[in-house]
Amino acid sequence: MEIITPVTEGLHRLWTTVIALLCLGVLQVTALAEVVINSSQPVTHRVKIQPVRAVKTDGTAATLFGGAETEAYIKEQIDRIWSQSGLVIEWLPVNDHVSDFAYDGSPNDYTFTARPSSHFTTLTDQLPAPPASTDFTIINMLFVKVVPGFTASVPNSANGRAWIDGRGIVVFIGSALVDPDWEVGMDAVASVVAHEIGHNLGLAHAGTTSTNLMNPLAEEERVTTFQTSTIFTNDPVYNDGYELLHVITEYSGWVSDNGITGSPDADDDLDGIPNIIEFMLDLNGTVPDATALPTPVWGANGLTWTFAKNPDAVSDGIGFGMQVSTDGGATWTEAGSSGSPGTIIADTSTQFGVALEAGHETGLMRILADIPTSITSQGNGGGGAAGARAVRVNPRVMSSCADGGCGCKTVEKAAAERFGLRKRKTAARRR
Q1: Which tens digits make up the pLDDT trace of 201-226?
Q2: What domain range includes position 353?
Q3: Quick one: 180 and 205 in the same domain?
Q4: How many domains are there within the chain?
Q5: Are residues 386 and 344 in the same domain?
Q6: Tell me, what CATH number does 99's domain have?
Q7: DSSP assignment, residue 373?
Q8: Which of 56, 128, 282, 315 has a 20 to 30 Å separation from 1 between CA atoms?
Q9: 392-430 confidence digits (pLDDT tens)
Q10: What is the DSSP letter of 208?
């Protein structure tokens, strides 16, 4: 089998990138709110995140999203927030990174002084792969004990730092916030992480809009249509947040459901049938099943080969075609083209078939796939040209927000519980 795919080329460099800080703690117990968003939009794109957990050499590990219950809740809230832009977040399996320096800046102690902001660049640019992803369309999110630019934070707070319009996030999650009985803490974590993802997607702080996700002082998590438009605006020259958008297709769902790791033209189950052809014919991409291919037959039209089209492949806009050869594979022509011995006898929404012309008693046939860029790009908003990740342009502009400028304020969990807020979110401020 052979597949034909479009080839695109493009120059990709990363523009001057801005760093943003976010610090969130549970503050007031007088104003009540859950995660508050605008209306959700139809989900069209996913953002992929590679979580990396910093672990000290003594085994002490940074806090993630807690147990299975709290993790599911936090991720659900993050998805709710980003559904406002038609996005869903896909979390890859967590990888550990054993490094005292990554964990808390060791050997220095940052209990009372801020960890140098320069550590952020070191952590995001020099994180080894693995555990980090080298795919420039995937966000690496490093969980640490002390975020560069901040002092060590208390257990009922969360803060983070991210590049604006470029991938790379470092976050701290306080262990008290991932208590399954304290919804306010889990909401705070979701808000912090969603905010940092917004920076990577190209959103800066939102100024004085008190209900906006990207406003450090906001008490809600709303995303505007203008911000969504910003996220979906592609710079044709530089790598930006647009490259982090992966179009959701039926094929991408099939890949995710079946654990396919190779590209469309790869052969994950090693049966001689490329992944994309397995999808087009609705075969099992994880089990060798070459014998499941439809068999050419002799009939009134001569030697014919007909197969059913997978409706999901048709929905994705994949073009079905076939090449034929009557000289043992020395030369191939596309069926239906001028001079080809192959005639298309069926090309409907459900079926495709080719017959060899009279006089050709033997021949070879192979399936062609015309794959849209929404599948081949594997990111880049589904339309940008893929390219190798280039070195960012210096100098970088760093947010002035840090411990000295905005800090992290928290309220004791016990105080919130006295006000009956175990299942509700108090107002929170972010930096």
Answers
A1: 999 888 777 799 998 877 899 999 99
A2: 268-372
A3: yes
A4: 2
A5: no
A6: 3.40.390.10
A7: H
A8: 315
A9: 343 444 443 454 333 332 434 544 443 344 443 333 334
A10: T
